[in-house]
Amino acid sequence: MSFADLNRLARQVPLRMLLVQAGEGDCLSWAGLVQPLRVAQRLLGQDFRLDVRTPEQVAHDIDEGWHVALLVADEPQPRPADALLRTVIERCRGATYWGGVGAAVLWLADAGVMGGVRIALPWALYAETEEITERAILTPHLFEIDGRHLSCCGGAASVDFALTLIDALFGSNVQAAVKETLCIERVRSADERQRVALQARFGALQPKLSEAVTLMEANIEEPLSTDDIANLVGLSRRQLERLFKQYLGSLPSRYYLELRLQRARQLLLETNHSIVQVGLMCGFSSGSHFSTAFGTLFGNTPREERQRKLAAA
């Protein structure tokens, strides 16, 4: 499931979103999330209701019927008491889509409610994940949607996450108006990676995996084969595939393809290179293969992606 699936909620008027502020109001994760949403609320008026609560308020609030609910916190905020946290989580789970931002993602995983779910966790908290890796699937992405579950690594990525939600829920015109108000030029996509996440989690424990990903990132225009990468890092193909499947939930070939397509999307949005040039720069010798692979991952063609950039401009 992708963020585009959220647009079915746009028919809900007013659309109701709950933000549970479990940390300080001046933390980056909170400010980056709430400011774009508040601008959207001003633009949409009664069509969008943004409710901000503390954990204590949520626990005693009889209100319900939220379409999106997010628990938000930054480190080193203290975790709420277990009983309070359980109550808040249950209230959030009553929403159509729900999840966490920043350190709250770890709280949800620790509570056992993200079993088998792909989650975007702040890389600084990776050292605390040994007990949850069998219950949740950690990704190095900025944010994730998996079924009804939403997660964001927090920090500066909260801005991108909020703007992506606005686009999915209310459309590109509302997102463009919010971006203009906040003087934001570019929104990073969900599948862009925390640059230090892989090294932070796997650098010491799985140096071969980190080395393989580095090779992929350095060879976008002329992709290496899986066998070539395995040989360069000193593993068999099967050993490399096992590492990727265990730690990244993907085969090397699939991970590499998505890496190249993410780079292509970035070039389409940020440069004036032709679509053919972008395909070649990302290792696609066939225009039809590039277009098909791009559409499968992102839900639209390279041409449509470029048209979005022109429309926004």
Look at the structure and name the CATH superfamily of the largest domain. Answer: Class I glutamine amidotransferase (GATase) domain
N- to C-terminal separation?
A: 28 Å
Characterize the largest beta sheet: strand count, sense, and whether it forms a barrel: 6 strands, mixed
Percent of residues in beta strands?
5-15%
Amount of helix: 40-55%
Keywords: DNA-binding, Transcription, Transcription regulation
Domain HTH araC/xylS-type: 210-308
GO molecular function: DNA-binding transcription factor activity; sequence-specific DNA binding
Protein name: ArgR family transcriptional regulator
Topology:
Blueprint: E1 15-21, H1 28-44, E2 48-53, H2 55-60, E3 68-73, H3 82-93, E4 97-102, H4 103-110, E5 117-120, E6 136-139, E7 143-146, E8 149-152, H5 157-170, H6 172-182, H7 197-202, H8 207-218, H9 226-233, H10 237-248, H11 252-270, H12 275-281, H13 287-298, H14 302-312
Helix pairs in contact: 1-5, 1-6, 5-6, 8-9, 11-13, 11-14
Question: Can you tell me about this structure?
Answer:
By secondary structure, this protein is α/β, with parallel strands linked by helices. It folds into 2 domains: 180 residues, Rossmann fold (3-Layer(aba) Sandwich); 111 residues, Homeodomain-like (Arc Repressor Mutant, subunit A, Orthogonal Bundle). The protein contains 14 helices and 8 strands. The strands form 2 sheets. Strands 2-1-3-4-8-7 form a 6-stranded mixed sheet, with helices on both faces. A two-stranded parallel sheet has the order 5-6. β3, α3 and β4 form a beta-alpha-beta unit. The longest helix has 19 residues. It is globular and about 60 Å long. This is ArgR family transcriptional regulator.
